[in-house]
Amino acid sequence: xxxxxxxDQEERNWKPAVAKGLRLKCPNxxxxxxxxxxxKVNDACANCGQELHHQRADxxxxxxxxxxxxxxxxxxxxxLYANFKPEPLTFALSLSAVTxxxxxxxxxxxxxxxxxxxxxxxxxxx
Length: 126
Description:
This protein is an all-alpha fold. The protein has helices at 14-22, 60-84, 88-120.
């Protein structure tokens, strides 16, 4: 028993919950949708009824997205420039497009990851 869990509560494994969150599914059942728009979390799962309104992801998903995309793009910039020496405008436009697309795809998944982790660790009233 950890100091945050109560004696009558079973321990929730965070790994399957986070995997479900990355797929934008309910961390409890893995079937219901976690989000009802781009970044809006459902108040409860339509499949199992798990309340999800307790989540407090705030700016965490944006920080994680910036961290991941920034590291990947930093390596990509180095490798592309060292090997191909592209024209500056082509280089900037292509990497800008990759940045925007990857950020837009990654942001909801990071939100799902954070909500699922909070659910697994029973944070914020889960």
